[in-house]
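U., I forgot to send this yesterday:
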Amino acid sequence: MGSKIRTGFYGGSFNPIHEGHLALGDFLIEHRLVDECWFVVSPQNPLKKTADPTDARFRLEAVSKALESHPGCIASDIEFRLPLPSYTVQTLRYVAVQHPDREFICLSAAITSTSSPSGKTTTICCKTSTYWSTQDPAPATKCRHPGQE
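Result:
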């Protein structure tokens, strides 16, 4: 068996998806840091009380359309099949079991990586996958989260 498929796991509401999101996916693919970049659309942010399934489907369609001209970047509805609200750590655990042929690299924007004051979610994500944050000047080669030198 060959090496695992390096898969960027970029979760978010993507409301809306914008050039910054696309640029990150393109950068990772173009520089061969990942083989694919999954844009995992969250149907319900855990920080919000309700989820509108119509809105979630609309965002997924918008992400799919935006990624059409970005080879290697793929819209994912994986969280639509999991219990709500969506937590990245639970989704990472699920995909690790469902896709043992892949190495998942959890991508995080600065706002996400600092959203948990205790760092608990980030620490758990580090145990399940490689973790890169856009706060870092370059992709991390090891698990690194805010406050860690």
